[in-house]
Design a protein that fits this description.
Elements (H helix, E strand, L loop, with lengths): L1 H40 L2 H27 L14 H29 L7 H22 L7 H30 L4 H28 L9 H9 L4 E11 L5 E9 L1 H5 L3 H16 L3 E8 L12
Parallel strand pairs: 2-3
Antiparallel strand pairs: 1-2
Helix pairs in contact: 1-2, 1-4, 2-3, 2-5, 2-6, 3-5, 3-6, 4-5, 5-6
Length: 306
């Protein structure tokens, strides 16, 4: 079953790389148009959106490279392979998002305090509309893969933030066209920053959970322990550890105290198969390691954990 799970993970990773490549091509094309439009119109919202789009491009490129690296096989030095490269890419994406949000917010506050900038609303509206269309396409391309990859989730958040930024820029352009209220551009920029920042922090929170090898949020350690205790021949379960190598790749280890008869009857192989099958079928954990122990062995271990 673990072999099939590995094939599914590989197929998902291949699909994610295709999604990332398409989204990167769209982003790079629109970025050029947004930069030209931003300088032609003098729009901070459009420039902020272009800055966010450039961070998208960098983030998508990093995510794509990380996805390719993650597909490399394990070695004697990198025994889990390079799957965690995807998590490091998500970390980079999160940090880029935070920097963009802070820079755009600071410039928006400056423009609100000193409203001297002139904004050409028509080119701003045209370019922001093109950006919105491109971001919608990129979002639809990436959507779905975020459930299996923290890396792709980071890329999706960047594109989603850019999509919202395009909406804000369009709204600001319309307000300027109808009323001449140029500060709408700076207000839209603040809205873009406010939309980006929370998503960035949520992404970074999940990255930290993986890098600190915390138990996955969707796995209840006590429930797993109780489930294993209910297996025939098992007396107790201790030294339980579960963590994610990367998104959708949980790893589990535990010491399992068994009845003396399990060793005497040569049933250890069957018990290991049953424990591994239990974890995979009930908790979707394909990579598990168990140390079978006779009763009383845990008392001799120097460092015992729950």
């Amino acid at each position: 079953m673990g072999h099939d799970h590995g094939h599914e993970h590989a197929r998902a990773a291949g699909g994610n790389r295709t999604r990332l490549a398409i989204a990167l091509a769209i982003t790079a094309t629109v970025l050029v148009a947004q930069l030209v439009g931003a300088f032609a119109s003098g729009s901070l919202a459009l420039l902020g959106d272009a800055g966010h789009m450039s961070s998208d491009g960098i983030g998508l490129a990093v995510a794509l490279v990380a996805s390719v690296m993650a597909a490399r096989p394990a070695t004697d030095r990198h025994t889990f392979g390079f799957q965690r490269m995807e998590v490091l890419a998500a970390l980079a994406n999160g940090l880029i998002l935070v920097v963009v949000a802070v820079v755009v917010a600071l410039e928006a506050v400056r423009r609100l305090a000193e409203p001297t900038a002139h904004v050409e609303a028509v080119p701003m509206l045209v370019v922001a509309s093109v950006g919105l269309a491109a971001n919608v396409v990129a979002y639809l391309v990436l959507r779905g893969g975020d459930r299996s990859s923290l890396n792709l989730r980071g890329a999706l958040l960047e594109v989603f933030g850019d999509l919202l930024g395009s909406v804000a820029a369009i709204a600001a352009a319309i307000v300027i066209l109808l009323t001449g209220f140029a500060q709408a551009d700076a207000i839209a920029s603040l809205a873009i920053a406010a939309l980006i920042a929370p998503r960035a922090f949520l992404l970074l929170r999940d990255v930290v959970r993986v890098l600190t090898e915390s138990a996955p949020r969707d796995r209840d350690v006590e429930q797993i322990r109780d489930h294993l205790r209910g297996t025939r021949g098992v007396v107790a379960v201790h030294d339980v550890h579960i963590w994610n190598i990367t998104s959708g790749a949980p790893v589990f280890t535990a010491h399992v105290v068994v009845e003396p008869g399990v060793f005497a009857r040569g049933e250890t192989h069957a018990l290991l198969d049953e424990l591994g099958g239990c974890l995979e079928s009930h908790f979707d954990v394909a990579h598990s390691t168990f140390q079978l122990e006779p009763a009383g062995h845990a008392e001799h271990e120097e460092h015992a954990h729950r």
